[in-house]
Amino acid sequence: MNRSETSKKKNDWLFILPAIFVVAVMTQIPFLLTVVYSTLRWNLARPDIPIVFSGIDNYLFFLKISDFTAVPEFYSIVLQTITVTVVALMICTVIGFLFSILLDHPIPGVNIARTLIMGPFFVMSTVTGVIWKTTILNTTFGWYGVLAKAVGLAPVDLLSYYPLPVIIFLFCWQWIPFFVLIMLAGLQGISGELVDSMRIDGLKWWQSTFWVKLPLIMNHIRVAVMLGLVFIVKEFGLILVTTAGGPGTRSYTLPYQVYMQIFSASNVGRAGALATMTVVLTLIAVNFVSKSMKKNNL
Amino acid sequence: MKKKLWSTMMGAVITALVLAACASPAPAPAAEPAADVPAAEAPAQTINIALANNPISQALSKLAKEKYKAAGVTVNIAVLPENDLRQKLTTEASTGGTSYDMFFIGPYEAASWAKNGWLENLEPYFKAMPAGELAAYDRPDLIQGMVGSLAVDGQSFALPFYGESSFIMYNKDLFAAKGLTMPDEPTWDQIYELAKKINDPANGIVGMTMRGAPGWGMSGAPFVTIVNAFGGKFYDMNWNATVDTPEQRAAWAMYKNILRDAGQPDILSYTYNECIALMQSGKAGIYYDATSIAPALEGAESKVQGKVGYAMAPHQKMTTNTSWLWNWAMGINPKSSDAKKKATFDFMVWATSKEYAKMSVDLDPTGSSTPPAARTSTYALPAYSKTPYAAMTVKALKAMDFTKPTIDPVPYVGLQYIAIPEFADAGTQMTQFLADYVVDKITLDEAIKKTNDVFNQVAIDGGYRK
Questions:
Q1: What is the torsion angle, in degrees rounded to the nearest 10, for the CA atoms of residue A212, residue A218, residue A221 and residue A227?
Q2: Would you tell me which CATH number, out of the four given (2.60.40.420, 3.40.190.10, 3.40.50.720, 3.10.20.310), belongs to the domain B166-324+402-461?
Q3: Which of A139, B6, B356, B422 sees the fewest Cβ atoms within 10 Å?
């Protein structure tokens, strides 16, 4: 018995080897190659220039500050990425929580309402972008333009003048359902006894909502925020089809900049460096969010 | 046990895929096609082609589906937006992919791609052509300026499908209503004044429309010709960036002033498709764009059919050669199989032939589907020579000089672009700064400085500066 158990334990690792291998190949090797590429001077559009090792030149290209009067492009893009992600996450959390409270009540038709509110989540982000851009926000043909003209206002081209707010709004429109889904699951998990005793103790609705229910679903909120962070940081299709990063680079995020470096500039080395920095920044952000939420919530 | 086998297999497959994807994409020099190019009766072939979503290419897609017959050859045509097409094909060519057998490109790509071995040399295919077919194809009839922009050392690497220069199109009704006249050879100052007079937002009338969407082949095209007209340039003879000059600043300001004071409301979302739609609706006074767009304005679905006037591309400090030269050309992917290459060549010859031009006029007598500026004989077709824009198009085509784009001597060629591989990126960044400046997100000083830095970086990275 004892002996067979040890030998079983000894051989256990053999069985998980294929799985480790698959995971390693699928996740780590592409990333390691990206790191390798990031140290090369390599422009696909110029096969006549040899591919050479260039150390950290590609990183310095983005990080260096040549003069302090103008903020280098990279830093403003990092700032934009942070702004978009943080603001979108906050709005998603707050509105998502309010929606899930609303949908937690057993009123007639609540199942239909729950299904409908999931709608935006199941629309592909590129489709979302095209629909909002052309049929709603267009100042000539879109609903927004037609309605604004009908009430006597001159419609402003929102995508050109307020690109970041529009992008944030669209991210929220798309991701709030996901937050609702998770938080609603948390609210549904609160036991009936607790709800009953809240009622007997005479708690007002806001007391029961913010003092009792909110702390109880904090774990769900943390999951939603973490996943939301990872998803929203890498969101790219929506930006491509709505503002295409514009005007200028005012709605670029890091993933969009990586895309432009490889598909517009054909610069493998710089795209690799940028992608590596994006991964590092995202990991730091996820750790930071996770730790700070744990600290505040014990 | 089964599971383990399965996951091991999966692992092996994925490893293979990753390794294949990561294999060095440095392209081998294009192999000369063997003298024994397979005959047309070879086994069934499917050739994949991507075209740009402009009206003339869309007509080709339609006619090819209806009329193109070749034994055992199926032609798959995808139509993509111009920016996407360009990125997709560049990635494909540079990494040696074979999802497309034909490259639908412009002279910008042709020159560097031919040198990089990303395009098949077409001369051996012409040599293998039966004499009768070759005579019917009549190579000298192709417009030689266009052929020249697609050749390296006299060897053709792509065939011009259609070409274009740029000129002014204006709505004669709106001009008559305000009692204005358009000079035959206007300056940008005159255009600006006229546009402001026509502009009437209360009635939904836009003074002038131009491409506003960033992209070197999008807003970059009209913009760089404005820079040339104002006497600006991008490099001096030592490849030092020269964006920060009074001439360039005047050009940047002119582009912004026209669009802000008299342009379309959603400036930055306008590609030429939106511009065409606006002009066709009769709600725009002036439109500066490609000569190849005129047929769409004279088509049956256009509200301004027969009401459009044409004038030369505006000039300023530089008085001639202020328009652009472009063509859409067809080249063969050297990585495709020999049989596919031959089938692709046959298709290209058909699409650029005299018969195709005639067929397209039969399809649409207004000429909106006919490829312009590719063949001299096209302008002799009775229906086509009567079109209102034919005379001005020929005049514009004759005025172009691809090799002398600016007043001062410059180390580059190309009219609405600089013919170096890095311009696709640098030019796109420039138009992004331009867009930023047009909607007041940055000042002219910042935009000029950032653009100048980009062009200096290109000169260093690309090894141009000695």
A1: -170
A2: 3.40.190.10
A3: B6
Does A160 contact B421 at a Cβ distance shorter than 8 Å? no
Q: Are B63 and B361 in contact (CB under 8 A)?
A: no
Question: Domain for residue A172, yes or no?
Answer: yes
pLDDT of A248 above 80: no
Within 10 angstroms of residue B45's Cβ, the number of other Cβ atoms is 22
**How do the domains of chain B map onto residue ranges?**
43-163+326-385, 166-324+402-461
CATH 3.40.50.10490 applies to domain B43-163+326-385:
no
Query: Are the C-beta atoms of B318 and B399 separated by less than 8 Å?
Result: no
Q: Which pLDDT tens digit goes with each residue over A98-112?
A: 999 888 888 888 888
pLDDT band at B242 (very low <50, low <70, confident <90, very high): very high
What's the half-sphere exposure (Cβ side, CA atoms, 13 Å) at A81?
A: 27
Nearest CB among A45, A47, A246 relative to B268 is that of A246
Q: Count Cβ atoms below 10 Å from residue A119 Cβ, excluding itself.
A: 9
**pLDDT score of B53 more than 80:** yes
- Record the pTM: 0.76
Contact predicate A103/A114, CB 8 Å: yes
**Amino acid A5: pLDDT:** 60
Q: Which residues of A touch B116 (CB under 8 A)?
A: 47-48
Distance from CA of A127 to the nearest CA of B (A): 16
Q: What is the structure's pLDDT at A3?
A: 56
Instruction: Write the pLDDT tens digit of every residue in A207-238.
Output: 888 888 888 888 888 888 888 888 888 888 88
Full residue range of the structural domain in which residue A239 is found: 73-297
Q: Mutating which of B112, B205, B264, B266 best tests the A interface, going by the most A Cβ atoms within 10 A?
A: B266
**Smallest Cα distance from B453 to chain A, Å:** 11
Nearest residue on chain A to B454, alpha-carbon basis: A73
Beta strands (DSSP E) in B261-387 are: 284-290, 308-312, 326-332
Cis peptide bond prior to A247, omega within 30° of 0: yes
**Minimum CA–CA partner of A15 in chain B:** B4
Lookup result for tokens 């990183």: A59
All residues of chain A having their beta carbon less than 8 Å from the beta carbon of residue B438 are 247
ipTM over 0.95: no
Q: What is the average pLDDT across B348-370? A: 87
Q: What share of chain B has pLDDT > 90, as a percent?
A: 47
Given a cut of 50, whether residue B3 has pLDDT beyond it is no
